[in-house]
Amino acid sequence: MLIQKLIRYARDPKYRFLVNASKGFLNRLSDEEFIHRKFRVVMGCEPNLEEPKTFNEKLQWLKLYDHNPKYTDLVDKEKVKEYVSKQIGREYVIPTLGVWDSFEEIDFDALPDQFVLKCTHDSGGLVICKDKSRLDKEAAKQKIDHCLTRNFFYYGREWPYKNVKPRILAEPYLEDAHGELNDYKIMCFGGEVKCSFVCTDRFNGKGLKVTFFDKDWERMTFERHYPASSEVIDKPEQYEEMCRLAEILSEGIPFVRVDFYDLDGKVLFGEMTFFPGGGFEEFTPEEWDRTLGDWIVLPPKQR
């Protein structure tokens, strides 16, 4: 029962103390055992990792057996920029304002009035500054220092994160003419775009909505963990360009999600994600788990 609680709440701040108290035990579990246990707790069934069929099962298999060394650089929020620049051009890359090993090294005087701080090896540890004169540096330091001490790999055994060097990255704060910054998450299977999704209502109190579209921007008839939006979501003007760029960046990769921002018609690269939801999110109807799983062609094992 304790193990189930630790795994279920591993990323919930309310239970962080429980995880920290016992993370040594969880970290000592083999990747296979951890994945089996977490899958059983979250998904309610055992994963078939010998002959995986579903999308979620195949993501777990890829964690264990697709250890391409370049993936480590592709999830590093700073190093991936060089890859993107070489593949599609630097004009699609958000500029870097600075990179540091510790919070104390940050030269705030050299930063603009608006900027974003994030860690290169992490997910979710974001500090948004819209007015430097009002920045709570102590709160920002606590958040960043906490992120620097954790290895994101251990939350779901997502192998690419294991050896990313923890650093702090500063980028410009971006928003469009409406004070927003929409991003589009392109799902690529073997270098081919099959579908994408959009996250809405994240910050307005209505509850996160995740709406899937096919490559022609037709709504798809399934949901994954979160409900789809009932609102009309317009196709972005640069959607075909995003799909073209995503296919270039994802060439030769069994599965990866490539995110782009739409900044008043200008396309900017966001990130590459190999395991959306950690491979622990259910589909409704359930058969879509198998449908997307069929789109993943597993490579030979390597680890």
Task: Give a concise summary.
The chain has 303 residues and is of the alpha+beta class. The chain has helices at residues 2-8, 16-28, 31-43, 55-65, 70-75, 79-88, 137-149, 153-156, 239-249, 287-294, and strands spanning 98-100, 115-119, 126-129, 168-172, 182-189, 192-200, 209-214, 223-224, 255-263, 266-273, 283-284.
Folded structure, characterized:
The protein is α+β, with helices and mostly antiparallel strands and 303 residues long. The chain folds into three domains: 1-46, no CATH class; 95-173, no CATH class; 177-297, D-amino Acid Aminotransferase, Chain A, domain 1. It is built from ten helices and eleven strands. The protein has helices at 2-8, 16-28, 31-43, 55-65, 70-75, 79-88, 137-149, 153-156, 239-249, 287-294; strands at 98-100, 115-119, 126-129, 168-172, 182-189, 192-200, 209-214, 223-224, 255-263, 266-273, 283-284. The strands form three sheets. The protein has a five-stranded antiparallel β-sheet. A hairpin with a 2-residue loop joins β5 and β6. It is globular. The model is unreliable at 13-22 (pLDDT under 50).
**What order do the helices and strands follow?**
HHHHHHEEEHHEEEEEHEEEH
Side-by-side strand order of the widest sheet: 7-6-5-9-10
**What is the first-to-last residue Cα distance?**
31 Å
Helix content, binned percent: 25-40%
Structural class, by secondary structure, is alpha+beta
Which regions contain 5 or more consecutive residues with pLDDT less than 50?
A: 13-22
Summarize the main sheet. Answer: 5 strands, antiparallel
The number of helical runs is: 10
Average per-residue pLDDT, rounded, comes to 90
Q: Tell me how many strands there are.
A: 11
Q: What is the strand content? A: 15-25%
| Shape estimate | globular
Give the CATH level 1 class of the largest domain.
Answer: Alpha Beta
The rounded Rg comes to 19 Å
CATH architecture of the largest domain: 2-Layer Sandwich
Domain module count:
3
CATH topology of the largest domain: D-amino Acid Aminotransferase, Chain A, domain 1
